[in-house]
Amino acid sequence: MSTSLYVGFGVVLYWKVFCPFFCESMDYFHQMLFLFPFGGIKGSTQTTPKSGRLENCSLESSFIVRWSSIADKSIPDPPTAVLVHGILGSRKNWGTFARRLAQAFPTWQFLSVDLRCHGDSASISKRGPHTVAAAALDVLKLVAQLRITPRVLVGHSFGGKVVLSMVEQAAKPLARPVRVWVLDATPGKVRPGGDGEDHPEELISFLSKMPNEVFSKRDVMNALIKEGFSKDVAQWVVTNLQQINSPGSSSPSFSWVFDLKGIAEMYQSYEETNLWNIVEDVPRGVHVNFLKAERSLHRWALEDLQRIHAAEDLAADEGGGVEMHVLEDAGHWVHADNPDGLFRILSSSFQGIKT
């Protein structure tokens, strides 16, 4: 069955639990409420305090008791992979792919998060500055409070720099070995697309001029396309609209779920953040994988590829690892353009670590 809980620091957990007996599922709930005593089951009358809140997240797994293993040390903790979305995205971007991974690798659990200013986390007040490093620290604090030690980190685009920053900032709670996947992003300079390509900075600027409340998703899509953005991007952007009930109005309206001002800061940080030091002096026990989308050539320069290939040889001598991969038949939206190919490439990380 699928269950959701609110826990004391503002995290929403979703996981898949297969319980042969009703008593086991009830025991599972009691364990969760014991570990997070300020939490309340979604839909109950209990309230969740706002202090100390972190990100909203989704947890996908295919086993019965995850959290009881914290109290019972005879049960090994399942290995965890953390999935991080890109700018203007949300944890929902990973939903279908995370469920596929959970079904294929039932001894693992997969945690996807809404970064600050995005998705459900946009409603959680966060102190600035809003940067790559701050977003990475949020996730590190989250996994520490969940008592999870990630063995795999996967970040798409902006999220790629977030997971690299997690490695840069963390001693614990990152395990060794840990595999890091940076999907269609480079550690340093962000190179804009050419003519006909979508520019995130221009998209953020255009969205900032739109009203906070709109009455038609289609109108928003048409406005984006008219401005020169692709249909795919227009369809993706409107997933950030949620229906609201306006007093005195008989027709539905929609509002944005993100904090666009904060996101603009985050994207500026993404352009400015340079994490080549992690790649060219990779910590022992860390394996950094870069995945380049075949049709996303504008995001990669020859200099980037040469530095990554040079880092591959250096890391092997230092007890770490750097590796380059290419995902065929895919543009920047790798988990949507070629999910089968991405699944095959990522699968090695979940087969190679003992559980």
List keywords for this structure.
single chain, 355 residues, alpha/beta, 13 strands, 37% helix
What does this structure look like?
With 355 residues, the protein is an alpha/beta fold. The protein has a domain at 200-261. Helix content is 37%, strand content 18%. The protein is built from 13 helices and 13 strands. It has helices at residues 22-35, 68-71, 95-104, 132-145, 158-169, 200-208, 217-226, 231-237, 260-272, 276-280, 302-318, 334-337, 339-351; strands at residues 2-6, 12-16, 40-41, 57-61, 80-84, 109-113, 150-156, 178-183, 213-214, 241-244, 253-256, 286-293, 321-327. A 7-stranded mixed beta sheet has the order 4-6-5-7-8-12-13, with helices on both faces. The chain has a 3-stranded antiparallel beta sheet with strand order 2-1-3, with no helix packed on it. Strands 9-11-10 form a 3-stranded antiparallel beta sheet, with no helix packed on it. Helix 4 (132-145) packs across helix 5. The chain is globular and about 65 Å long. It starts with a strand and ends with a helix. Residues 1-55 and 62-71 have low confidence and may be disordered. This is AB hydrolase-1 domain-containing protein. Residues 82-343 form the AB hydrolase-1 domain. Pfam families: Abhydrolase_6 (PF12697). It comes from Vitis rotundifolia (Muscadine grape). Keywords: Hydrolase.
